[in-house]
């Protein structure tokens, strides 16, 4: 279809790089207008109860304050829940800022102060006093999980667990080797480096331009139009640069609502930026309790897989993700029982965080596989290879591709896995216990509906446009590569117009589907431009391409030529001139192939190998080596692709060792809502990491052969770390994160 | 400062900002970070926590790396301040900026200006002589996208170019 790759598949540097490294890439809060107003939010200091009274008089009297909003004076907004439901909302009643005196979670916004300066808004916000009638909150999943329930209404796009197959209980009871274990994971917080912020430029009562920190400009536009009754043609939402999101920016946040509300009410431009503390109260990876039971026969063949998960959700929405299904499709096993339930806590609704569901479920499954390998006395990698399956037993579907064997082989070779001594606590380096662990990772390779436009201009410039977002994933760059390749122009000649709600429709940037979906739409649009150019060329007198079909022609060096003979062709500029045109533009549309999806399903796979060193006296855990081998179809840009996997590994190390939202269950309040006490991996925690992309050809996952990379990098990492810790210490830690105190407590017993 | 009270409270300072002298009247409660991101319209310096915990707001004050969110602007009379905008611009990037591009030492780009300013400060401090020391001494700059190893590559490359000692130590 295209010329042999010249730029797609090549590690080109990000085209937005020079702007990012020089501070010239504007994020949501970095747009200015003289006289614009600033907002600061006051949040609740209880987790459950009601506002008895709220005193804003001191704040209102503060110099520079324009207005203070609370539930007592908030302008009206949509009444129906359906109007508040964003594009990825779970079933339930979405939170409505400043609507009622009821408090549903710690850190809930209770007032918005609007002032002439940021400092005046911030300082006045501290003068708002609230009197509460507090109720006793319940925020401890470990306490409420016996009350778990199967969510009645399923979340759109999330597959519920499959029905049990075979006779899992009987098979378990009769098997030669059995393990059953419970895994607990504390809640996590995304903490993208950029604070959530919205800048609203007020044009008139109906027209707004909004810069929002979001993973989908059109999702934010639809949300505010539904709530405030605005016409989608009058509201433009832009998100040119997004300072990380990891799923937290999929659903609109309260600052968007509040900034638009104040702007419409005051007829002024308004900026509202959250504090780091505020962000901890919103969209977190739910805490979970999981039980996995595995059984194998004498040869190590799986006989039974049972996985039960309970995750936390709020009292007002049933957040759901795919947690247990992975256990039914990871390995060959004819007896499986997978169940997934929720339990309510007095916290805000959890949400998607990098590899939502899989990061949690595979953590338990792959830890349990390690336990089973120990039980059998088999190498953990051998157990996985033995139970390999090239089929999805959950859905009874074929896989579009699964190069997992290559991941195992190449990953193990790079790591030196065959040097591992099997017995736990058998490897040492001075004072350090050394452990090697591994795990498999899985993620779905999905596509969403996406549209794009591609324009070729007579001066050789190409414009690619779609409403897609670049949250650091490299969208700008890969779309430029696709445009450059299609028209055989240097990447500098391609202008990528994305991150604007007025551009062709795409879904939110999430689920690892942007490259596959928007990338395919761009390729299809580029093909359409080429077809149009051929039509025009064939209208020309004595056209050398008169008998050519679109499949037979390619664009090379500014000319439309026969693929087999570049001598035969017409200059693109002559084609456009023949029609007195300065450019030609065509749309393209891509989406999942429903017919194919009846037979096939598509996943990305990984094998992760980890070395840890643990100081025997101090209990300090260091991850010293990681090799991650990834099977994810075609890699458009090895440089940005590698970065995505690196990021996944780092967040996976955080999941294993550092990250937990600590809640004082007596008050239901988050205690560590800052970056000093909520630990994320820092430079010193991260060794050199090796990423391998194994060869994987897939002509079904997406039209451009891409499977997506945003999530697969994190899946399996935390269990590989935990398995390495077991290998180092001989102690199994099943409560995540595995912090130094847990290690010390167990080491004392040795 | 727009409101009358703030104007009354404002204190005159003179700073050198990215090589240019600026005479400013600032209220005593305004941080350097908010001064830069607000009235100065220099948003290259990022706000990630406002508590000195993330390093996104790192700038160079008299050549030393400082979290600008912890510095009140009024305390900086006479100071020389360099922000990311002052290090280099597209088309004329500082070697560290170019190395960050070459090594893909970022993803979302939000922590990047702070990482680069911090790396510039680190180099002039002269304490880092190995990759391990770079990691230790850059640990005040968080990167949630997890670009740490690429950041270490970028800094190591520039240090190698500029410091013979460093090169020898690394070998």
User: Tally of extended strands of chain B?
Assistant: 5
CATH class of the largest domain in chain A: Alpha Beta
User: How many domains comprise the coordinates of chain B?
Assistant: 2
Report the mean per-residue pLDDT of chain B as an integer: 93
Number of strands of chain A: 33
CATH topology of the largest domain in chain A: Aldehyde Oxidoreductase, domain 4
The SS-based structural class of chain B is alpha+beta
CATH superfamily of the largest domain in chain B: Beta-grasp domain
Using the alpha-carbon principal axes, give the shape of chain B.
Answer: elongated
> Domains counted in the coordinates of chain A: how many?
3
| Class of secondary structure makeup of chain A | alpha+beta
Write down the Rg of chain B.
17 Å
Can you give a write-up of this model?
The complex is a heterodimer of chains A (750) and B (171). With 750 residues, chain A is of the alpha+beta class. Chain A folds into three domains: 183 residues, Aldehyde Oxidoreductase, domain 3 (Alpha-Beta Complex), CATH 3.90.1170.50; 356 residues, 2-Layer Sandwich (Aldehyde Oxidoreductase, domain 4), CATH 3.30.365; 145 residues, 2-Layer Sandwich (Aldehyde Oxidoreductase, domain 4). Chain A is 26% helix and 25% strand. In chain A, the strands form nine sheets. Chain A has a seven-stranded mixed beta sheet, with helices on both faces. A five-stranded mixed beta sheet of chain A has the order 16-15-14-7-33. In chain A, helix 14 packs parallel to helix 15 and helix 18 crosses helix 19. The mean pLDDT of chain A is 97. Chain B is built from eight helices and five strands. In chain B, helix 4 packs across helix 7 and helix 7 packs across helix 8. Chain B is of the alpha+beta class and 171 residues long. A five-stranded mixed beta sheet of chain B has the order 2-1-5-3-4. Chain B has two domains: 84 residues, Ubiquitin-like (UB roll); 76 residues, [2Fe-2S]-binding domain (DNA polymerase, domain 1), CATH 1.10.150.120. The longest helix of chain B is centred in the last third of the chain and has 15 residues. The mean pLDDT of chain B is 93. In chain B, 39% of the residues lie in helices and 15% in strands. At the A-B interface, helix 1, helix 4 and helix 18 of A face helix 1, helix 3, helix 4, helix 5 and helix 6 of B.
